[in-house]
């Protein structure tokens, strides 16, 4: 492999993928630095797995190019790309022992039996599966199968490890455990990990680079903090959860701020960003983090106060460190306030109470338009059936 | 009452198989020790029938011929069955097409074997379609004689009639292979032939075993095809037995049948030793 | 394997060619004799066709030398119908039984498998010996029927296994929960849901019996069924009448296959349409 620099840097250039009339990936470009942990995040059918499979060489782009370490990998079989794929179902060979599964690639390459076994055992040690080397896959639990799948993928010394929903088949406890182990492994090996998931806590916990996808398009590709705290569009803000998305029509500009009128008549004051001139009557979207909103128990008395919404408590969920309060009638979409535990229990609210939620101008985060068309009411975090 | 239900439900099956399978097969074994004259058979306990068969050099050549037919037919049907199943499972992605083409391969199973066998006669004869085509193309000056009434014709008919018994079980077990296993193998650096031998073949060995049992049992027990397609020139163990039955030498025929039954059972047992097919059948 | 871009690899075309050749191998000779059965009166056992006529079909019914064609066809169809009915009822009952654990289940299962693998000649010989020893004359509707059932029942049983494996018992429990009796549950819920599988059992029951030769040989007694008649003709008849017979018997088979598959497709279509309306 003389024509690549040996690194796991991936460049996706204007890649489109069609399945018949279905547009799975729509002119996507993305650069993933070498040695980074990248999560492709989005609901099912958003094209994230298709991108993963195109990098792996199990699908061919309809148009566009993919390079790994500077080398165009178009037409190369998976094994010549320096990638290894860990399948969602693990795809362990049911007729082979754990050791033979891990050693599969070595056997294909004609490595002698003893060397195969010893290198497979090394890999099994890496994933703490040494005692299970002689078992059959059917005798292992889901978490154990996953470790074997990981060892089998890593034995090829890949530059890039591709993980397709690796944690989705595990129970909550194992999921958290394997999550931190994946992160540790990636740091130790120093290779690129690309991890497909539909669960946003998983993505922000693991990734250096989070790529939020929707309908075959990248809505935002940024660090976990940027994606979570500064979502680019309403879709990202809704999908990452943690935000309330609001919108209104521009009424007037005063000093460094704009005044908006929401669909329910509410008044919003938002900061005016330098360099983005706005017209009166223009529709503006913004978000406010759930944990930056104050709840007050008195009513507003009917007068329109800026950046304050009156609503009825619809549900209260205790979450340990905070309490999640869902309001009805506050805005035209779901409105949630996360109150710190002690603040909530000082003045608890109950289902049916009328409350006011308010926030400061400085907590308003302005949003750009969604890139994918018709994504208005995409539910966050939930996988569409 | 509820506890009795399964016994009542399975009773008709048990009764029919008991009366028309277990008792008759037992009867064959019993009669193989009986004596006979040209008019009737008599209960007895003699080994003459076995002695006669086992000391006859004809028996050994019959077995040799039968095993030869069984082995060649098995190898060819296995090759075809595996290839056709491979094509249907891994190359025909559209489910409707897959079912349709699979049915196309199995429909002849529901038609007459005899007719399918004799339909080769106008094809293979001296004046047959095949020879006409060959001579028409100038490939041969004289008609090929070996086509009909020969070992070639017998094996051709066996393959024609019995390949289905190979395709169906192999297709069944192959269709159950998770396609991501193939991708995982490719991802793990397997070349196409390695995918076949390291992954697919081991994963459909139950189907192969079932098909093999069918084909071997069918060839070993056949007396129709070999007689018609060899034009009476070849005989197998079973067709020789039919001749004894025609001569009313039932105890000898029964002894021959018992020996053949033991041989077939041993072959089946050998296959079952290598591959456990129980789960496949029950599933 | 199909590459993602929709271009198919060379192996696909090679295998397609192999498949086409195999289908030709399977159907080619049969098709040839169907065509040849319409030979003109002066035509022979092979091509070329000397005109097109129904002469050889007439000959089947008319002349002595083709034996008792009409009678043997009638017997074969009757026997197949009885086999089908018995196979259906017995297989369904046995299939129901095998859903529970009961003593001797695996023994009966293995006997059924043995029956499937047992060369037909042994079954025929054994039954004829039993009848001979008991002094009963073999008859097609008694010993013949029994012999055929040893061949059709294992298929029926295996199909019922497959069918019940995919059957969700919750339907049954729901019916009983809603106050249906066990018998009502079976007839109003279980059997209608399993209908396509039952048709398949019927198809095997009919066609396997209708075409069975090896098991019939020593068990039908004095009156032949059609496959035996055909076998006898292969040595004695040297006219296209033989092919006409093949065309007739295959037409019966295809009619049954068409009816069965058509019924299954219709049931499935109606179900998906209803599901679509819901």
Automatic annotation (TrEMBL), chain A:
Residues 10-240 form the ABC transporter domain. One of its GO terms (cellular component) is ATP-binding cassette (ABC) transporter complex. The lineage of its organism: Bacteria, Pseudomonadati, Pseudomonadota, Alphaproteobacteria, Geminicoccales. One of its GO terms (biological process) is putrescine transport. Keywords: ATP-binding, Nucleotide-binding, Transport. This is ABC transporter ATP-binding protein. Pfam families: ABC_tran, TOBE_2. It comes from the Bacteria. GO terms for molecular function: ATP binding; ATP hydrolysis activity; transmembrane transporter activity. PANTHER family: SPERMIDINE/PUTRESCINE IMPORT ATP-BINDING PROTEIN POTA (PTHR42781), SPERMIDINE_PUTRESCINE IMPORT ATP-BINDING PROTEIN POTA (PTHR42781:SF4). It comes from Marinimicrococcus flavescens. Signal peptide: none annotated. InterPro entries: AAA+_ATPase (IPR003593), ABC_SmlMolc_Importer (IPR050093), ABC_transporter-like_ATP-bd (IPR003439), ABC_transporter-like_CS (IPR017871), Mo/tungstate-bd_C_term_dom (IPR008995), P-loop_NTPase (IPR027417), Transp-assoc_OB_typ2 (IPR013611). SUPFAM superfamilies: MOP-like (SSF50331), P-loop containing nucleoside triphosphate hydrolases (SSF52540).
UniProtKB/TrEMBL annotation, chain B:
The keyword Transmembrane applies. Residues 63-272 form the ABC transmembrane type-1 domain. GO terms for biological process: transmembrane transport. Signal peptide: none annotated. It comes from the Bacteria. PROSITE patterns: ABC_TM1. It is a multi-pass membrane protein. InterPro entries: MetI-like, MetI-like_sf. Belongs to the binding-protein-dependent transport system permease family. CysTW subfamily. This is ABC transporter permease. GO terms for cellular component: plasma membrane. Keywords: Cell membrane, Membrane, Transmembrane, Transmembrane helix, Transport. The chain crosses the membrane at residues 12-36, 67-89, 101-124, 144-168, 250-275. The keyword rRNA-binding does not apply. SUPFAM superfamilies: MetI-like (SSF161098). It is found in: Cell membrane.
TrEMBL record, chain C:
One of its GO terms (biological process) is transmembrane transport. It is a multi-pass membrane protein. Keywords: Cell membrane, Membrane, Transmembrane, Transmembrane helix, Transport. It is found in: Cell membrane. Gene3D superfamilies: MetI-like. It holds the Pfam family BPD_transp_1. The keyword Transport applies. CDD domains: TM_PBP2. GO terms for cellular component: plasma membrane. The chain crosses the membrane at residues 12-36, 76-96, 108-134, 140-164, 185-208, 242-267. InterPro entries: Bact_Polyamine_Transport (IPR051789), MetI-like (IPR000515), MetI-like_sf (IPR035906). Residues 73-260 form the ABC transmembrane type-1 domain. Its main location: membrane. Belongs to the binding-protein-dependent transport system permease family. CysTW subfamily. This is ABC transporter permease. It comes from Marinimicrococcus flavescens.
């Amino acid at each position: 492999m003389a024509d690549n620099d040996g690194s796991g840097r991936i460049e996706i250039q204007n890649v489109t993928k069609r399945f018949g009339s279905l547009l799975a990936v729509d002119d996507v470009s993305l650069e993933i630095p070498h040695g980074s942990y990248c999560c492709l995040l989005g609901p099912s059918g958003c094209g994230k797995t298709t991108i993963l499979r195109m990098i792996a060489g199990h699908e061919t782009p309809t148009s566009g190019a993919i390079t790994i370490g500077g080398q165009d990998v178009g037409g190369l079989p998976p094994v010549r790309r320096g990638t290894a794929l860990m399948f969602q179902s693990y795809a362990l060979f049911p007729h082979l022992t754990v050791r033979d599964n891990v050693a599969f690639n070595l056997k294909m390459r004609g490595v002698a039996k003893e060397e195969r076994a010893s290198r497979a055992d090394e890999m099994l040690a890496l994933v703490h599966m040494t005692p299970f080397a002689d078992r059959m896959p059917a005798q292992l639990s889901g978490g154990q199968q996953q470790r074997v799948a990981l060892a089998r993928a890593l034995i090829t010394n890949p530059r890039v490890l591709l993980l397709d929903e690796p944690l989705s088949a595990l129970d909550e406890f194992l999921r958290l455990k394997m999550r931190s182990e994946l992160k540790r492994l990636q740091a130790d090996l120093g290779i690129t990990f690309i991890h497909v998931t539909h669960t946003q806590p998983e993505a922000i916990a693991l990734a250096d680079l989070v790529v939020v996808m929707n309908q075959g398009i990248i809505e935002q590709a940024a660090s976990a903090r940027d994606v979570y705290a500064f979502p680019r569009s309403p879709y990202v803000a809704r999908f990452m959860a943690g935000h309330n998305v609001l919108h209104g029509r521009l009424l007037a500009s005063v000093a460094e701020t704009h005044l908006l009128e929401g669909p329910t008549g509410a008044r919003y004051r938002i900061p005016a960003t330098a360099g983005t001139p706005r017209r009166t009557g223009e529709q503006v979207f913004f978000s406010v983090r759930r944990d930056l909103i104050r709840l007050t128990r008195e009513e507003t008395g009917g007068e329109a106060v800026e950046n304050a919404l009156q609503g009825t408590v619809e549900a209260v969920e205790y979450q340990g460190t905070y309490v999640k309060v869902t309001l009805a009638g506050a805005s035209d979409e779901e409105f949630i306030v996360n109150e710190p535990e002690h603040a909530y229990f000082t003045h608890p609210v109950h289902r049916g109470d009328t409350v006011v939620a308010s926030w400061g101008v400085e907590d308003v985060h302005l949003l750009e338009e969604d890139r994918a068309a018709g994504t208005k009411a995409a539910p966050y975090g939930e996988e569409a059936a | 009452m509820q506890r009795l239900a399964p016994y009542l439900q399975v009773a008709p099956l048990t009764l029919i198989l008991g009366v028309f399978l277990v008792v008759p097969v037992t009867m064959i074994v019993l009669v193989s020790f009986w004596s006979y004259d040209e008019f009737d058979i008599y209960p007895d306990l003699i080994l003459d029938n076995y002695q006669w068969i086992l000391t006859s050099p004809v028996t050994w050549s019959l077995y040799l011929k039968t095993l030869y037919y069984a082995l060649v037919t098995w190898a060819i049907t296995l090759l075809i069955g595996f290839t056709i199943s491979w094509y249907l499972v891994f190359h025909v992605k559209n489910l409707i097409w897959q079912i349709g083409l699979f049915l196309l391969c199995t429909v002849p199973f529901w038609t007459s074997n005899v007719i399918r066998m004799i339909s080769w006669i106008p094809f293979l004869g001296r004046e047959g379609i095949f020879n006409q085509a060959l001579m028409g193309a100038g490939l041969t000056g004289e008609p090929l004689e070996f086509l009909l009434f020969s070992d070639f014709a017998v094996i051709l008919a066996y393959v024609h009639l019995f390949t289905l018994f190979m395709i169906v079980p192999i297709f069944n077990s192959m269709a159950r292979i998770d396609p991501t296993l193939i991708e995982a193998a490719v991802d793990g650096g397997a070349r196409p032939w390695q995918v076949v031998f390291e992954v697919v073949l081991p994963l459909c060995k139950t189907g192969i075993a079932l098909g093999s049992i069918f084909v071997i049992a069918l060839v070993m027990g056949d007396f129709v095809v070999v007689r018609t397609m060899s034009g009476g020139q070849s005989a197998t163990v079973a067709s020789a037995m039919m001749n004894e039955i025609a001569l009313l030498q039932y105890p000898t025929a029964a002894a021959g049948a018992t020996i053949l039954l033991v041989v077939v059972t041993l072959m089946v047992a050998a296959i079952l030793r290598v591959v456990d097919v129980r789960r496949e059948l029950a599933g | 394997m199909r590459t993602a871009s929709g271009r198919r690899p060379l192996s696909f075309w090679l295998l397609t060619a192999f498949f086409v050749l195999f289908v030709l191998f399977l159907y080619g000779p049969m098709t040839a004799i169907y065509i040849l059965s319409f030979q003109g009166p002066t035509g022979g056992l092979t091509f070329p066709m000397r005109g097109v006529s129904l002469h050889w079909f007439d000959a089947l019914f008319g002349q002595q030398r083709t034996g008792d064609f009409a009678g043997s066809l009638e017997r074969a169809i009757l026997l197949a119908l009885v086999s089908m009915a018995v196979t259906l009822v017995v297989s369904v009952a046995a299939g129901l039984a095998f859903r529970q654990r009961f003593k001797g289940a695996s023994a009966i299962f293995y006997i059924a498998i043995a029956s499937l693998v047992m060369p037909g000649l042994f079954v025929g010989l054994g039954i004829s010996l039993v009848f001979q020893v008991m002094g009963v004359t073999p008859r097609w509707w008694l010993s013949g029927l029994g012999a055929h059932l040893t061949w059709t029942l294992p298929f029926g049983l295996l199909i019922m296994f497959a069918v019940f494996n995919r059957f969700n018992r919750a339907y049954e429990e729901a019916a009983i929960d809603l106050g249906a009796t066990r018998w009502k549950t079976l007839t109003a819920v279980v059997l209608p849901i399993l209908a396509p599988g039952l048709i398949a059992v019927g198809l095997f029951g009919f066609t396997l019996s209708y075409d069975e030769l090896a098991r019939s040989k020593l068990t039908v007694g004095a009156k032949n069924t059609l496959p035996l008649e055909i076998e006898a003709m292969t040595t004695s008849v040297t006219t296209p009448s033989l092919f006409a017979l093949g065309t007739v018997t295959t037409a019966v088979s295809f009619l049954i296959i068409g009816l069965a598959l058509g019924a299954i497709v219709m049931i499935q279509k109606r179900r998906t349409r209803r599901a679509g309306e819901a």
